[in-house]
Design a protein that fits this description.
This protein is α+β, with helices and mostly antiparallel strands. Helix content is 24%, strand content 29%. The relative contact order is 0.21. Bound molecules: zinc ion.
């Protein structure tokens, strides 16, 4: 059902939205109805979503724009060159932002999603660590 989403975006959404969080669980149900209406032109992977709101219920976030999920990107060396933010407007998925804090490491969604499985595995093993944002490993070129 997610074939309209690029694989890198679908992978990251699946990784950062955890099923045991009520807001995230609702947002996950929006993903099959989601498409990308634009990408950042710099290549970082930031994506702007389009969602048919008649087909999905809004997450209980209130009417404003919030960061519903975030994940730090870490390199193999343990450095944190950036993060991924999932933003919602009025409870609906709105855009995915890839932030870079480092001029040395090229932070892109394509690199991060290569190892998104790592996040899913570690997330499942530490169910008590729900307060800590998940981490995605980004490959250093
Ligand atoms: Zn960009």
């Amino acid at each position: 059902m997610t074939e309209c989403l690029p694989a890198d975006v679908a992978d990251v959404l699946a990784a950062v939205l955890c099923t045991d969080n009520p807001v995230h669980a609702t947002l996950r149900r929006q993903v099959p109805h989601l498409s990308v209406r634009g990408r950042c032109t710099c290549g970082c992977g930031t994506a702007y979503f389009e969602l048919d709101t008649s087909k999905a219920e809004p997450a209980p976030t209130g009417p404003g724009t919030i960061v519903a999920a975030e994940a730090q990107l870490v390199t193999e060396a343990g450095e944190c060159p950036g993060e991924v933010l999932v933003c919602t407007q009025g409870g609906y998925l709105s855009w995915l932002e890839v932030c870079s804090w480092s001029g040395d490491v090229e932070v892109t969604l394509a690199a991060a999603s290569l190892a998104a499985d790592t996040l899913l595995i570690s997330d499942g093993q530490s169910s008590a660590a729900s307060a800590a944002p998940p981490t995605l490993r980004v490959q250093v070129q």
